[in-house]
Amino acid sequence: GGATTDYYSYLTGYVPEDKVIYRGVKEPDAKRTVEGDLGMRINAVTCFEQAKDVLKVRFDEETLKRFHEYVINVNKNPELRPQNQEEESFDQELARICYFLAMRRHSGERQPIFTPHGLAYIQRGKDLRGIETLIMTGGWLSRQNSKELFSHGDFFFEDLTKEGRIPLIPQVKRYLVDKDYIVPLLANLHEKYSKEIIHFTHKYLKEL
Question: What 3-state class would DSSP assign to 137?
């Protein structure tokens, strides 16, 4: 969205495994996080600054300068929309930043350690690697018609992998789009009409 990025998951992310040591408070199967500093308008400058190292790899100096000018402009004028192809690409990059940083924060990670019994891992947070389906609803995501947004994700986890840490992020194979923004409405009725909601959800979600 323009001000925040909300990320939801439903999964038991704590399956007992040999050589995995769990740390921290166990998170619920149904989890929601609201990233108040990740937004495509109100927080556009913040997004740019947080992803600066990634953007320096992806863009040349001149393009990066124009991108910075663009995010400053939309931050001051949230109602502005892209006026040309380059600005469209900047908007897509802002969405990519929001998506991958929100995913990174929402997901758990594993840190390798060496014990007297050999290699083991410390896990903090939920293991979301079992999630294969992503539903995009609301804001910019509900208007997607390609998978381009989800490319170049490795850049956002490069610092973790260099340290040997393993991001426990979803392994998405299926992308569904809620173009009519119906999922939040149906959610209000789930206690009384769960079967009907399943029917309507399948009817309205479009697969990329």
Answer: strand
